[in-house]
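User: Please predict the structure of the protein below. I'd like the answer in structure-token form so I can feed it into my own downstream comparison script.

Assistant: Understood. Taking the following sequence of 254 residues as input:
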Amino acid sequence: MFRVDINCDLGESFGRYRLGEQEEILKYVTSANIACGFHAGDPTVMRETIQLAIQNGVKIGAHPGLPDLNGFGRREMNITPQEAYDMVVYQVGALQGFLTTFNETMQHVKPHGALYNMAAKNQGLAEAIAQAVYDISPQLVLFGLAGSELTKAGEKIGLPTAHEVFADRTYQQDGSLTSRKQPDALITDSQQAVQQVVKMVKEGRVLSQQQIEVPLQADSVCIHGDGAHAVEFAKYIHAVLTEQQIAVRSIREG
């Protein structure tokens, strides 16, 4: 049987600013990427999100990003590999501190936004991030864009590595995501988005913007929790995947 993990970026509220319907969306995902305070999130939000994930049986991962609250971590910064390493260790450590108080283990680490996209193409940054995760724990799963420098770095160092695909993003012929600066970067039609996921999981391919079939591995699919119809989409994709006989399970489940 085919299988896939559904992950969602959560804990991205900050102070009085509230983003997304976490409690509802957690009913339909299997892994939660929790913001660690650099691009979004704060200590209270981190704790509350962990509690909700545990209550819903959702596996927990750290979602470290660039220190850019105003830009939501989506603006590139000219950082060194050492700085990338330090940022990841710092943020994963913050989330791990909370998990310890719940006697809960961390499943994975998934970089956020610009840090994720930079590491997908920059070997030095990718290897620094993989090294940071490995040094914290070789048992942590590293999430990265399917076929990217980040997944290559994770596999090279010996980390369990999950190749991630996206439901609501279009792809380029080199396997990269279409830049959010482009008007066709996002897929807004739910049926089209889910059919793209089914194709990636069952066929191991995605149709790029250039109408070229691009091979990729789909271990986990990312859905975004901050859209206007995020909960409805999460429910819909979970239902369609099940109908297509694709088991929805976290990366660590057998």
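That's the full token string. Strands lie at 2-10, 31-35, 59-63, 108-109, 141-145, 161-166, 205-207, 213-215, 220-224, 246-248.
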